[in-house]
Structure formats: structure tokens, C-alpha cells
Amino acid sequence: MKIRVGFGYDVHALVPERDLWLGGVKIEHTMGLQGHSDADVLIHAICDALLGAANMRDIGYHFPDTAGEYKDIDSKILLFDTMELLRDAGYTLGNIDATVAAERPKLNPHIPEMKRVMAEVLQVDVDDISIKATTTEKLGFTGRQEGIAAYATVLIQK
């Protein structure tokens, strides 16, 4: 068995008049994330981690923000398609460990639903997905509530 590890990172600016999507779940908030797609930073970080672990470049390579078909796309579709790329290459998912950095809104109440949604999309057990939420103690762009960042580490095997 071949085991590989990948790391992903994504960040998007918070802007008015956009829905806030994190982990495939719409979260009520006064602002949403700016991006070509639905700007789900958590899913994007996980996609990058998966692609990196399989040495398949990054999310922008496979789903470019210059392509019209990805405009406002639901990131759950990108996650599904990313996992299909890995499965086609003979990989299975071991686990995901992810962290979202945001001052607001409070994310802990939404984590069980994020895990459930992503497990369904990835067709894995919910226990294979760990999501944590943190703040940056009011430091940096996340602390000033200018944006949200997400980090993900994955383990895949062949």
C-alpha cells in the first residue's frame, strides 16, 4: 500500500451581498465570501490537499476561474469531481483534518452538518473527516473580519 499526505490552504475576502458557504453548508451571516465559484474556502482547501497528495497540481489547474462553467458553481461539485479524479488514479481517502480560521460567525454549531455533507459528497464515513474552527484572536485579515482562511491535511492511499 502506498500512503501519501497532502496539504491545502485557501482564503477568500468577506463581502456584502453574498451567501456564506463553508463545508458545503449555507451559514447565516451578514457577509459572504467573494470568489468565482461559491467561494467555499473549506472545500477549496480540501480539494487542494487531495490533489496535492496525488501529485495532480491544484484546484485552479483543474477548475480555472477563467472558465465560465465554474462561475458561481457549488463547490460540492468541485469536491465530488476532485475525488473522482483521485479514484480514477486508484486512490482512496484515508482521512481529512481541516481548520477554518474566522472571527465570525461562530462555526462550531455547524461542524456536524459540514462533516455530514462532505462525507456524503466524498462517499466516505463521517468519522474520516475532522473539522475544527478557530479565531486569530482579532489579528490579521481574519481577525479584522476581512476574510476567512481554511487549512486542510489529507491522507490518501493506493
From TrEMBL:
Cofactor dependency: a divalent metal cation
Enzyme class: lyase
Domain 2-C-methyl-D-erythritol 2,4-cyclodiphosphate synthase: residue ranges: 3-156
Superkingdom of the source species: Bacteria
Claim: Kinase is one of the keywords in the record: no
Annotated positions binding 4-CDP-2-C-methyl-D-erythritol 2-phosphate: 10-12, 36-37, 58-60, 134-137, 141, 144
Pfam families: YgbB
Cofactor notes: Binds 1 divalent metal cation per subunit.
UniProt: a divalent metal cation binding residues: 10, 12, 44
GO MF term list: 2-C-methyl-D-erythritol 2,4-cyclodiphosphate synthase activity
Keyword Metal-binding appears in the UniProt entry: yes
Keywords on record: Isoprene biosynthesis, Lyase, Metal-binding
Pathway: Isoprenoid biosynthesis; isopentenyl diphosphate biosynthesis via DXP pathway; isopentenyl diphosphate from 1-deoxy-D-xylulose 5-phosphate: step 4/6
UniProt site (Transition state stabilizer): 36, 135
Reaction it catalyzes: 4-CDP-2-C-methyl-D-erythritol 2-phosphate = 2-C-methyl-D-erythritol 2,4-cyclic diphosphate + CMP
Record-linked CDD domains: MECDP_synthase
EC number(s) from the headed UniProt entry: 4.6.1.12
Oligomeric form and interacting partners: Homotrimer.
Similarity-based family: Belongs to the IspF family.
Function according to Swiss-Prot or TrEMBL: Involved in the biosynthesis of isopentenyl diphosphate (IPP) and dimethylallyl diphosphate (DMAPP), two major building blocks of isoprenoid compounds. Catalyzes the conversion of 4-diphosphocytidyl-2-C-methyl-D-erythritol 2-phosphate (CDP-ME2P) to 2-C-methyl-D-erythritol 2,4-cyclodiphosphate (ME-CPP) with a corresponding release of cytidine 5-monophosphate (CMP).
Record protein name field: 2-C-methyl-D-erythritol 2,4-cyclodiphosphate synthase
Organism of origin: Parabacteroides hominis
